[in-house]
Specification:
Blueprint (H helix, E strand, L loop, with lengths): L9 H5 L9 H20 L6 H21 L7 H13 L2 H19 L10 H15 L4 H19 L13 H21 L2 H20 L5 H33 L7 H29 L4 H17 L5 H4 L1
Helix pairs in contact: 2-3, 2-7, 3-4, 3-5, 3-9, 5-6, 5-10, 8-9, 8-12, 9-10, 10-11
């Protein structure tokens, strides 16, 4: 049988459809409002510093974008709403970007700790810390967070009124197929081009596909949790790859700001070694996760949905 994996925590349970949702539209509204409410609560939480707040609320935006992408063909307001959450998250990205650079530096030095002289790279860490402090000292962070909060309040009012042109499986099948199909094409492009842009595009489509699996976990928990776990692992692998690309670009943009050129070249060589390993891991996971034609996967997931809504009876084509 399928391994007894679980998506843990209250957030995991709230970011999924429920049998009690009378319609797909009801579920979409409930899930979206839940994410918006969490974002507002995080913005209002005095125990959270700006870095953590930004990290959390940007994740909420990504989840809502994954949700609306699932029902995109049936959702007339898709473009407006997707753009709203994308643009709102972008206004806060500068703070998250500096933190990601530090995390990447720490990961690289940790991986090769026994092979390097950390002191040779200390100037890199100092420059990254300074960049982060400069970002945190920006006078407009409070204004940006307040503007973000106002955007979320307005977005909640709209989300409570969202409507779909279709219901049930008809509202889901097109979005599942389109996103999975884009992920398959993006993997082929990444394998062919090996460029930062191609891997970043692949990452985005995988993240959305992973959200779709998570939203649909209740239709058959074992297989869907396992599928989500694989998509999540691939997304994290591609995320680490993207962080390396961003880091390398930062070093190239300010060649004199991070230390001695010889030390920087050594550090970039370590990043290249890690990048190749991540690419191998990504293609290994992707070859299995994305082996199915998009229409076939969508048809299978829709069959799971219909069986779930009917109380467990699979169609003959899947039960055979």
């Amino acid at each position: 049988g399928w391994p007894r994996q679980r998506l843990k925590g209250r957030s995991a349970v709230s970011y999924r459809f429920k049998f009690d949702d009378a319609t797909v539209a009801d579920g979409v509204r409930r899930i979206a409002v839940g994410q918006i409410d969490k974002a507002i609560a995080e913005l209002d939480d005095p125990s959270m510093d700006a870095r953590l707040t930004v990290h959390q609320v940007r994740k909420r935006c990504k989840k809502v974008r994954g949700l609306v992408r699932l029902v995109r063909p049936a959702f007339p307001a898709y473009r407006e709403e997707n753009d709203t959450y994308r643009d709102a998250a972008r206004t806060l990205s500068f703070l998250r970007d500096t933190e990601a650079l530090i995390e990447t530096y720490d990961r690289i030095t940790g991986l090769y700790e026994d092979q390097i002289d950390r002191q040779a790279f200390a100037s890199i860490r100092r420059r990254l810390t300074l960049r982060q402090q400069e970002a945190e000292a920006r006078a407009d962070i409070g204004e940006r967070l307040e503007a973000f909060r106002e955007e979320m309040v307005d977005a909640k009012v709209r989300a409570l009124r969202w409507t779909l042109k279709e219901d049930g499986a008809d509202a889901l099948e097109g979005g599942v197929a389109a996103t999975y199909g884009r992920a398959r094409k993006a993997m082929k492009a990444a394998r062919r081009k090996r460029s930062a842009e191609a891997f970043h595009a692949w990452r985005k489509h995988i993240k959305y596909h992973g959200f779709h699996a998570r939203l649909l976990v209740p239709v058959w928990e074992g297989p869907m949790v396992a599928h989500h776990a694989a998509a999540d692992a691939l997304g994290k692998t591609l995320g680490a790859h993207h962080d390396l690309d961003v880091f390398a670009q930062a070093l190239d943009d300010e060649p004199d700001a991070y230390g001695r050129p010889a030390d920087i070249e050594v550090f970039k060589a370590l990043m290249d070694r890690q990048r190749k390993g991540l690419e191998a891991d990504a293609f290994d996971i992707g070859a299995r996760l994305l082996c199915e034609p998009a229409d076939a996967l969508a048809e299978r997931w829709v069959a799971y949905w219909r069986a779930w809504r009917k109380g467990g009876e699979l169609p003959a084509s899947l039960a055979a």
